[in-house]
Amino acid sequence: MRQNWHERFAETPDVLKSAKRKQTLVPVLDLEIGGDEFITMAGPCSVETEFQLMATANHLRSAGARILRGGAFKPRSSPYAFQGHGLAGLKMLARARQETGLAIVTEVMSEADVPMVAEYADILQIGTRNMENYALLEAAAHSGRPVLLKRGMMATIEDFLRSAQLILDNGNPNVVLCERGIRTFETALRNTFDVAAIALLKQISHLPVIADPSHAAGHSDVVPALARIAVAAGSDGLLVEVHPNPDKSWSDGDQSLDFDAFDNMMTSLDPYLELRKLALRSQGLPVCEILRLRAMEAV
Ligand code: PEP
Ligand code: MN
């Protein structure tokens, strides 16, 4: 029997596709997330120095990224690790936008910081550790900025949809869902990339869905493969960590791509993005289905 997703996710009706709402397009400067253009967001885990950020932003723009990421407020596993530059980091991000034209996405960790972060950022990122921090979600919703909502590392798809519903309920329709890996019994990689969540969310929700292969993998050599898989699963974009010198990175160096690796990843995405274009023209067939049809034609 076919699953009735509206019944299954009855608690979160507004995030589900309907006759009225087939696809949400989230406007960010001159871009739309969730539309025909595949949007790559990239940048360092943390904003470290003016030089690090500007060198990265300039490179990323020339390599096809559309949005610059970088943490000014960092949720670190250790209380003794670098916690981010705060306001000084936000100011560096704003200067990078001014110089490159790239839109800015950055994490906000506290309700109290929402107005300040919203002043400098184009998109507010809610991190995995805060996905169920409803007070923060409400404050982010009321900021009027689009919200990039990361899936909690221990959240089910239903939990994830509940958090998105709360933001919509608070009057903000511009939510981007981000699959960033979940905790399972597997320990070789940092998290388990739940590609099925992307496939399902694209099927049932009108909200844009993107993938963060960096936090999912935890190792830079696995990131490009997960990025390609994300496109095949129907992702609308990527969030990727890039650093001029990952060995010297103040946070998440193991999973950060250097500039060459980022360029190679982008080139390797090209055939998948061509298939994505075909998929968009084929009444919503998923990219993986187009791949299958192509493969059948070839034999
Ligand atoms: C980040 O994007 O740097 C980050 C901390 O992500 P997450 O919340 O997914 O761990
Ligand atoms: Mn990180």
Bound molecules: phosphoenolpyruvate, manganese (II) ion
**CATH H-level superfamily:** Aldolase class I
Rg from Cα: 18 Å
Total tally of structural domains: 1
Number of helices: 11
| Backbone shape | globular
Name the helix and strand elements from N-terminus to C-terminus, one letter apiece.
HEEEHEHEHEHEHEHEHHEHH
Find the structural class using helix and strand composition. alpha/beta
CATH architecture assignment? Alpha-Beta Barrel
Average pLDDT taken over every residue: 96
- Biggest sheet, open or closed, and with what strands and sense? 8 strands, parallel, barrel
CATH classification, class level: Alpha Beta
Summarize the structure.
With 299 residues, this protein is of the alpha/beta class. The protein has helices at residues 5-8, 50-62, 87-100, 114-120, 134-142, 157-169, 195-204, 213-217, 223-233, 259-281, 287-298; strands at residues 26-28, 31-33, 39-43, 67-69, 103-107, 123-126, 147-150, 175-179, 209-211, 237-241. Bound molecules: phosphoenolpyruvate and manganese (II) ion.
Tell me what you see in this structure:
It is a single chain. Helix content is 40%, strand content 13%. Helix 2 runs parallel beside helix 3 (87-100), helix 9 packs parallel to helix 10 and helix 10 (259-281) packs across helix 11 (287-298). The chain has one domain (5-269): Aldolase class I (TIM Barrel, Alpha-Beta Barrel), CATH 3.20.20. An eight-stranded parallel beta barrel has the order 3-4-5-6-7-8-9-10, surrounded by seven helices. A two-stranded antiparallel sheet has the order 1-2. Strand 3 (39-43), helix 2 (50-62) and strand 4 (67-69) form a beta-alpha-beta unit. The protein has helices at residues 5-8, 50-62, 87-100, 114-120, 134-142, 157-169, 195-204, 213-217, 223-233, 259-281, 287-298; strands at 26-28, 31-33, 39-43, 67-69, 103-107, 123-126, 147-150, 175-179, 209-211, 237-241. It has 299 residues and is of the alpha/beta class. It is built from eleven helices and ten strands. It binds phosphoenolpyruvate and manganese (II) ion.
